[in-house]
Amino acid sequence: MTSIGILGAGRVGTTLARTLTEAGHRVTLGRREHGAETGTPPVAGSAVRYADHATTARTADVVINATPGDSTLDRLTALRAELAGKILIDVSNATHDAADGLPGDLCHPGGSLAERLQDALPDTRVVKTLNTMLFMVMTAPGTLATPPTAYLSGNDEQAKQTVTGLLGDLGWQPGWIEDLGDITTARATEAMILVVPHIIRRNGFTPFAVSVAR
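Predicted structure:
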């Protein structure tokens, strides 16, 4: 059992919290609102705890960033002390919204949010993953007709091994996980978000992932 803190209580955060709790992990869901620890769990009867962002980061061994990517860097830089010594799994994409509210241009062209997080949080081991799919695929990869790919980017091999184990708890088979290398490779997977809005505009929010076919 791993102590996991999730920053962000939207669709991504609550979906991950539900599945990781069911897998036996101790999960705290971090919200920005004052008094969020008294909130209602995303699933009736679930063991998910609530806390503010600082408490969530400070009390977890592994922290998942599920906050909006365009404001993530500022939010998490403010938690530098709380995130020191932790594994930070970044599943977000930093984009400016297009006119229809879907992802538009990248906030960090020529680089990546994950790289900026690692630079801003030198005592934290950042791993990028799960940012190349719709949120429902993160916890149900086996529901797609074609095996999807979860990419990994990070400088610390042990941290990536820990994240690989958590991906297994989310339903990802070993052959579906592609370790791309160090954190600089995250700029490639973050750029994949540029194809996503075009697919959504044509097909709606039908589950899909941007994957490698072999």
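Summary: The CA atoms of residues 20 and 170 lie 7 Å apart.
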